[in-house]
Every structure is written in structure tokens, then in C-alpha cells.
Design goal:
With about 130 residues, the chain is an all-alpha fold. The protein is built from five helices and no strands. The chain is about 50% helix and about 0% strand. The longest helix is centred in the N-terminal third of the chain and has 18 residues.
Length: about 130
């Protein structure tokens, strides 16, 4: 492992931890917590509620907690393409967050280092989502 990459990973995690904490020490709301649960968290529900109000998207009626959770998960996943049709960058942002969390989680598979092979050069096209 490259010590620079390990150091950068720690700096990223420290930054993200600092952003999620409020001034009084409580945990702030965050969105796209795929690493914790596959169902939308409170931050996701509030984001979808605000986007639905601002973009005049239909919301479930009656607004039961189960209906709101199902509706939010459909919008976030893209199965209901209402948000992605209006805000295509929402899909890109969701995917970037997912890939970033996956890459800094320490669970991302990496090929074993082979001293006989030259490193493969990375190009910008390798970063296309």
C-alpha cells in the first residue's frame, strides 16, 4: 500500500466527519448513506420532500411513513425517473457519492501488486461513470 494514498484516505474521512457534525456535537443529516442501509435515511427523506415541493413533483397521498420511504427510494434509485428527468445531475451526483464511498471504504477490490509488471497508466476515460 502506498502511504500517500492511506494518508489521503484518512484526510478525506476526517473532512467528511467534520462536515457531518453540527456545532453542538450532534450528528447532522446526510444523504446517500448506501454504506449504512439500502433504505433512505432521514436526510434522504427531507431532500426528496424539499425537491418534490420545489419541483412540483407528485407526492404520495396519504403521506404515511412507509409510502414516503418507498416513494423516496424509487426517486433516488431512478426507477421513478421524475427527478432525473428534471435534474439529470442528480443521477451523476448520486453515482459519484456511491463510487467515492465505495473507494474510501477500504472494501474496494484492488489487484495485487506484481513487481514484474509495469503499472498501467490511467487516463481520464477510466474515470467515466
Amino acid at each position: 500500500y502506498d502511504p500517500n494514498i492511506c494518508s489521503l484516505r484518512c484526510q478525506c474521512l476526517d473532512y467528511l466527519r467534520g462536515v457531518t457534525m453540527k456545532d453542538d456535537g450532534t450528528q447532522g443529516l446526510s444523504i446517500f448513506n448506501f454504506d449504512q442501509s439500502l433504505s433512505p435515511a432521514e436526510g434522504d427523506l427531507k431532500l426528496i420532500k424539499q425537491l418534490s415541493i420545489q419541483l412540483a413533483l407528485p407526492r404520495p397521498h396519504p403521506p404515511s411513513p412507509e409510502a414516503l420511504t418507498n416513494h423516496s427510494s424509487m426517486l433516488i434509485s431512478g426507477r421513478n425517473g421524475a427527478i432525473i428527468e428534471i435534474l439529470p445531475e442528480f443521477e451523476y451526483f448520486r453515482d459519484i457519492v456511491f463510487h467515492f464511498k465505495h473507494s474510501v471504504s477500504g472494501k474496494a477490490p484492488t489487484p495485487p501488486a506484481d513487481p514484474k509488471k509495469r503499472p498501467v497508466p490511467w487516463t481520464p476515460s477510466n474515470a467515466i461513470l
